Amino acid sequence: MSTGIDFSSPPPEHGRSPAVAIFVSLIVLVGIILFSICCARKMKQAVVSELRAAIAPPMPANVIQVWEVDAPTMEKFFLELAQQKPVRFTAQQLCAFTNNYSVTLGSGGFGRVYEGQFTNGVKIAVKVLNRGPNRSIEEQFMAEVGTIGRTHHIHLVRLYGFCYDQFMSALVYEFMENGSLDRHLFSENKELEWEKLHEIAIGTAKGIAYLHEECQQRIIHYDIKPGNVLLDKNFSPKVADFGLAKLCNRDDTHVSLTGFRGTPGYLAPEFMLKNFPITYKFWEEYEKGELIQLTEACGIEEKDRAKAERTAMVALWCAQDSPEARPPMSAVVKMLEGGVEIMPPPKPFHYLFSVGTDVLKRPSSSGSGSGYTSSEETTSNWYKETTPIMAKYEISVATL
């Protein structure tokens, strides 16, 4: 039985053909754009590869670039280089380093010195300066940071950093386990043997020679004394306390000062005539040829007496009142080490006695005055070069 309806095909839908055409066109256009971008990138990479190949041959795939290996080492190097300069600490950091300033190492008119420790375990000494109405402490602070802050030498104490704000002025130094030299020189125990004292003298002279003759700017300390020579755990000396130090022009062969600087008893002779009696007793023993007897009286063993006599002669040369007569520190090091023959020193203070004390009042100017003598000057006044063979020959001739 037939119903009269045909199910063989769906009825036609009118109006869809234009929409389908537009959609297909958009898809084709997007595909063309993406393909063009992809081709452009490949062409750019090819050009870059050609340029690199023209400049340098390609590296093997299994080779690591040099800068990848050296990067950590170089960064460490740059960090250590930056740490060579004094660091500015905060008051809170210093309080933490010193455990609220619980251990005092020493004190004086300048302030107090406290024991401390960095977070990495390195021990330090923190000098907290007293502040007052005058500017002397401020000047001392600037002198220390401005001089020792730019030096690095095995025989100069290292300045790690400082703190300066409206409440505090402090300096952070390396810690010296055996304190200052004066504690050992003037104690009743006399625990340091002469050989070690002689090494300390040479080390101290090397530190001062570096300040005078090797720094980019000459540094004159003006307060060298046993209290300002510190000793590390091996009793190696380091010059400290640069509060009176002065930066000088390297072109000046002499430096003049009309004012008073330093500690009585340890000044250059022209600063204070009261220094005279200190050296006169010494000189009289030398003039009478009794330095050896003096070393015996001081308890110096026979094996060390020749070095002690040489050291005494160097001291007499360094105490000459005429600035030009004093040896530069490089010559002092040579004479102390024993590689040269020390010439007989003249009588100290002859210069001031002959010209009068008015010489102390002359105006300050470069090229005249006192305090430092250039190492370029002749050394024939103080010593003459010799060798073991020459010395043996001279002794043999003298005994004939």
TrEMBL record:
<dbReference type="GO" id="GO:0004674">
    <property type="term" value="F:protein serine/threonine kinase activity"/>
</dbReference>
<keyword id="KW-0067">ATP-binding</keyword>
<protein>
    <submittedName>
        <fullName>Rust resistance kinase Lr10</fullName>
    </submittedName>
</protein>
<keyword id="KW-0723">Serine/threonine-protein kinase</keyword>
<feature type="transmembrane region" description="Helical">
    <location>
        <begin position="20"/>
        <end position="40"/>
    </location>
</feature>
<keyword id="KW-0808">Transferase</keyword>
<keyword id="KW-0547">Nucleotide-binding</keyword>
<keyword id="KW-1133">Transmembrane helix</keyword>
<dbReference type="GO" id="GO:0005524">
    <property type="term" value="F:ATP binding"/>
</dbReference>
<dbReference type="Pfam" id="PF00069">
    <property type="entry name" value="Pkinase"/>
</dbReference>
<feature type="domain" description="Protein kinase">
    <location>
        <begin position="99"/>
        <end position="400"/>
    </location>
</feature>
<dbReference type="InterPro" id="IPR017441">
    <property type="entry name" value="Protein_kinase_ATP_BS"/>
</dbReference>
<dbReference type="GO" id="GO:0016020">
    <property type="term" value="C:membrane"/>
</dbReference>
<keyword id="KW-0732">Signal</keyword>
<dbReference type="InterPro" id="IPR011009">
    <property type="entry name" value="Kinase-like_dom_sf"/>
</dbReference>
<dbReference type="InterPro" id="IPR000719">
    <property type="entry name" value="Prot_kinase_dom"/>
</dbReference>
<comment type="similarity">
    <text>Belongs to the protein kinase superfamily.</text>
</comment>
<dbReference type="InterPro" id="IPR008271">
    <property type="entry name" value="Ser/Thr_kinase_AS"/>
</dbReference>
<keyword id="KW-0472">Membrane</keyword>
<keyword id="KW-0812">Transmembrane</keyword>
<feature type="binding site">
    <location>
        <position position="127"/>
    </location>
    <ligand>
        <name>ATP</name>
    </ligand>
</feature>
<keyword id="KW-0418">Kinase</keyword>
